[in-house]
Amino acid sequence: MEKSALQIQRAAYQPKLPKALQGAVKVKEGAPTQSVDNQEEIKALFPNTYGMPLVEFVPGEETAHETMNVGIILSGGQAPGGHNVITGLFDAVKKLNPENRLYGFILGPGGLVDHNYMELTADIVDEYRNTGGFDMIGSGRTKLEKEEQFEKGLEIIRELNIKAIVIIGGDDSNTNACVLAEYYAAHDCGVQVIGCPKTIDGDLKNDQIETSFGFDTACKTYSELIGNIERDCNSARKYWHFIKVMGRSASHIALECALQTQPNVCLISEEVEKEDMSLNDVVDYIADSVIRRAAEGNNFGTVIIPEGIIEFIPAIKRLIAQMNDVLAMPECHNLSMLHNDLIDFVKSQLTDENLLVFNSLPINVARQLAFDRDPHGNVQVSKIETEKLLATMVGQRIEKFKRWGRYKGNFSTQTHFFGYEGRCAAPSNFDADYCYALGTSAAQLIACGKTGYMAIVKNTTAPASEWVAGGVPITMMMNMERRNGKMKPVIRKALVDLDGAPFKAFAAARDRWAFETAYVYPGPIQYWGPTDVCDQPTKTLALEQAK
After folding, report:
1. What dihedral angle (degrees, nearest 10) is formed by the CA atoms of 154, 158, 164, 166?
2. By the 8 A CB rule, do 29 and 450 touch?
3. Do the beta carbons of residue 92 and residue 133 sit within 8 Å?
């Protein structure tokens, strides 16, 4: 495979490790843990993996390790740094015992069930060091939740003499990892399950997980693109750019990109929900900036929109919640319905309030809310062209203001959606180091006999050598939520904290950004140069840790 000059140079980069992971380690255990909510329900569902202590690795003495084979699974959407989790795991497993083997299950959790795998050797792994993407073994979205899947996976686990499975994924994938760990523990299968926190959306975070991997690189990639658009916007001076960014369930990416680029408008879904804003309120908020800037002769601007914002508008959120219950009804599964028939059935079940909201939406948006669902039952908000919807609605509002004499400028729009552009970027130094440390931590958790844990690395605004590595019981992060009409145990998503330092810093500056042209052009990710340029964390992390 031919390589670019960047790939060749990045392959030679040696990720930095925390001091505690640079040699032999031992485990320092903390106090027993409990779930973030619904403690009795979670404990009843996970009796064998509930209440375990936090784990921190500290330097230890060299000891001999028995041979162990490990399987690894990439689950869900891609995130920069996934290959470095694998290379960190591979190097650590081989360091523990050169006879150890690492097996990759192809195309996600389905590879485990279908016995589709490959052994990962040094020749294979070395080709992917510090690279983006998940193409070493591919990923998938198969949910591991049924006993027959667990048993089918167990067949190949025993055939390959695998001691542990490492699942790299987001909140839903790690929830599945927790369920799998509990099943294998309850049935005394002798198989450990370890998770790793992955999602560019940034919503897999808490007191123990400071950031999910890939968030740093994705935000820097999107911010470069937004900065480029802002530069063009400030040069051409004739377009308002409506830019949607990833973030189905939380607005962490939108907030981080706003802090990096200082757009005229950035919507934060969590604030829209808290303020009980309607779709018209959101349109008015954007239109106000358009009018204010036009009064100064600035008929251009930038708007950042989180992809999941439509689900956070309270009236639409209530509609979606009822639609989820309706779509889970047997009638929707047992009847062979045409789309129009299903729409009519859904409408017949809605409350008057929700029906009014449904009928107020553009027909294409209403249909997407009804039909486009992912395997977990979530609305596929990335398919709803919110950026075009808002650009059109703001344009219609501006036309009214023009007729009323309140607006005398020119309003033209361009729309963008940045999604895939950031998911497989070559990882930043931060993500390259962070992911390598996560993979190394996962290997040590296995060697220490742990199961039902997620590998973690903390103190991440300090130099990498001062990072703190360990593990957190996955059950500690879980609560009960309604999914597909039923209450299920899931890892609680982390939303933007409106009382947190990152949002407060944004809120303190946004009124000035709305009126002025205060753009910042961060440029591309830097891999070589001064540490304060190349190894800097996101502004979100720096503000959260007051550094």
Report:
1. -50
2. no
3. no
pLDDT at 473: 98
Strand order in the sheet with 101-105: 25-32, 53-59, 468-473, 453-458, 192-197, 162-169, 69-74, 101-105, 117-119
Catalytic residue among 91, 171, 201, 203: 201
Residue 195: helix, strand or coil by DSSP? strand
Would you tell me how many other CB atoms lie within 10 Å of the CB of residue 123?
Answer: 7
Contact between 87 and 125 (Cβ < 8 Å): yes
Say how far residue 35 (Cα) sits from the centre of its chain.
21
Choose among 376, 306, 307, 368: nearest CA to 343: 368
Residue (of 284, 348, 282, 345) closest to 316 by Cα position: 282
What is the Cα–Cα distance from 475 to 47, expressed in whole angstroms?
Answer: 10
Who has greater pLDDT, 349 or 117? 117
Percentage with pLDDT > 70 across the chain: 96
Catalytic annotation on 511? no
Burial of 285 (0-12, 13-18, 19+ CB in 10 A): middle
Can you tell me the distance from the alpha carbon of 543 to that of 547, in angstroms, rounded to the nearest whole number? 6
Helix, strand or coil for residue 141? coil
**pLDDT tens digits, one per residue of 111-124:** 999 999 999 999 99
Cβ 513 vs Cβ 264: under 8 Å: yes
Q: How far is CA 530 from CA 185, 458, 538, in A?
A: 48, 23, 16
23: three-class secondary structure by DSSP: coil
Give how far the C-alpha of residue 144 lies from the chain's centroid of Cα atoms, to the nearest Å.
19
Token couple for 66 = 């028995």
From residue 60, alpha-carbon distances to 27, 56, 57, 94, 280 in Å are 8, 12, 9, 18, 60
pLDDT in tens, 282-297: 999 999 999 999 999 9
Q: Collapse the DSSP code of 472 into the 3-class scheme (helix H, G, I; strand E, B; otherwise coil) and give the result.
A: strand
Nearest to 197 by CA among 224, 177, 223, 221: 177
CA proximity to 240, closest of 362, 419, 385, 387: 387
Task: Please state whether 512 falls in left (phi above 0), alpha (psi between -120 and 50) or beta.
Answer: alpha
| Sequence-distant (≥ 6) Cβ neighbours of residue 380 within 8 angstroms | 368, 372, 373, 374
- Degrees (nearest 5) of the Cα angle 321, 325, 327? 110
d(CA 104, CA 120): 6
* Closest to 173 in 3D by CA, of 195, 201, 205, 151: 195
Three-state SS annotation for 505-546: HHHHHHHHHHHCCCCCCCCCCCCCCCHHHHCCCCHHHHHHCC
Helix (H, G, I), strand (E, B) or coil at 112: helix
Token pair belonging to 146: 């049924």
